[in-house]
Amino acid sequence: MLKRSVHKEDIKAEIRKRHGSLAAFEAARGLPRQSTRDVLRGRAVAQTAHAIAVELNTTVERLFPGRFKSHIRDNSARAGDMHRQNAEAR
């Protein structure tokens, strides 16, 4: 199944419709300056990505598929992922 993200210009346009500018959105949400731009350019700023998803009433995975780890952790570590001292205790 092919997952498509929402185009970054569509995200910016929707935020601008609601807040007037990206800077106003960041100020209203208490986000660092330029963090929205950073997320849209591909940098990982999870707090800002989450705020964008909440603002647009969608999920982070829908907006940025595969870019942010989900909050659900997989505790089934493979032997190669473990520290060598803990691998023997398995």
Structure description:
The protein is mainly alpha-helical and 90 residues long. The protein has a domain at 8-63. Helix content is 49%, strand content 0%. The protein has helices at residues 8-19, 22-29, 35-40, 46-55, 60-63, 84-87. The longest helix has 12 residues, at 8-19. It is elongated, with a radius of gyration of 17 Å. It starts with 7 loop residues before the first helix and ends with a helix. The model is unreliable at 72-77 (pLDDT under 50).
What topology emerges from the helices and strands here?
Layout: H1 8-19, H2 22-29, H3 35-40, H4 46-55, H5 60-63, H6 84-87
Throw out a few tags for this protein.
elongated; single chain; mainly alpha; 49% helix; 90 residues
Quick overview:
This protein has 90 residues and is mainly α.
Give the rounded overall mean pLDDT.
82
How many beta strands in the DSSP annotation? 0
Individual helix count: 6
Beta-strand percentage? Answer: under 5%
| Sequence stretches where pLDDT stays below 50 over 5 or more residues | 72-77
H and E string: HHHHHH
The major sheet is characterized as: none
CA-CA gap between termini: 35 Å
Shape: elongated
Classify the helix fraction into a percent range: 40-55%
Radius of gyration based on Cα positions: 17 Å
Instruction: Kindly name the structural category.
Output: mainly alpha
